[in-house]
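Tokens as discussed.
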């Protein structure tokens, strides 16, 4: 069953007298529990597409249905609540709040949507164990390594057990060993919790591990055939 259905999505950016079509009639869907990778050259519209799907920006036209609910039609308050409950996002740079501890950062989503403590405690335990950050929870972001910071941001994205996890080059800022570890943690979440994962990546070795690969080229999205990935 499709968990995410995107239809005819268009996003334009106007800059003085120029209009950029960052996303040009993108149509795709993602099945429950699937890992879909999105690849493509710099500036082709990958982050824009991901931000639209995560409800961080609004499209000019088209629809984005998550579990059959069209997020493009939601009022801002409803969308904010929906995002907190159903959508997780991991950025290339971790985006942690510097004056909050790792634990406080991880708990932002449940706090925001008013989940009672007992409903996330079990998940928290599982996630921090699986990510290997159990003994780092009282540290501030600048007391953590880059890899640990990214793990905290993954924990924050997973804590509400989102329907879809969007990740924008989550390993782009890490060295090879850390990148491999962070990737295998995301894949473990997919295998163990059936976490649906949509990931933008430059790395073909990561894309080859996805169930399906989509290619973005100058705003146009298309499917990559397995033979093109060799
Ligand atoms: N807020 C914005 N205002 C104006 N133009 C923008 C904005 N965000 C993105 N763009 C433009 O939209 C196009 C797509 O940008 P986007 O960031 O989605 O590319 P990308 O594929 O993620 O690139 P990269 O691989 O370098 O991260 C680019 O031409 C970019 O300059
Ligand atoms: Mg980008």
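Sequence:
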């Amino acid at each position: 069953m499709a968990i995410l259905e995107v239809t005819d999505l268009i996003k334009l950016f106007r800059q003085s007298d120029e209009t950029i079509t960052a996303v040009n009639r993108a149509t795709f869907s993602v099945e429950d529990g699937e890992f879909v990778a999105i690849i493509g050259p710099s500036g082709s519209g990958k982050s824009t597409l991901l931000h639209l799907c995560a409800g961080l920006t609004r499209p000019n036209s088209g629809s984005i249905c998550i579990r059959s609910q069209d997020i493009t039609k939601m009022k801002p308050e409803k969308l904010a609540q929906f995002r907190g409950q159903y959508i997780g996002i991991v950025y290339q740079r971790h985006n942690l709040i510097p004056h909050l501890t790792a634990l406080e950062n991880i708990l932002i989503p449940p706090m925001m949507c008013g989940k009672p403590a007992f409903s996330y405690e079990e998940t928290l335990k599982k996630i921090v164990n699986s990510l290997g950050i159990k003994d780092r929870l009282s540290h501030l972001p600048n007391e953590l390594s880059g890899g640990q910071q990214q793990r905290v941001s993954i924990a924050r994205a997973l804590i509400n057990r989102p329907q879809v996890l969007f990740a924008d080059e989550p390993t782009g800022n890490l060295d090879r060993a850390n990148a491999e570890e962070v990737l295998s943690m995301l894949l473990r979440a997919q295998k163990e919790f059936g976490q649906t994962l949509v990931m933008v990546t430059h790395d073909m070795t990561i894309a080859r591990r996805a169930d399906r690969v989509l290619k973005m080229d100058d705003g146009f999205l298309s499917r990559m055939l397995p033979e093109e990935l060799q």
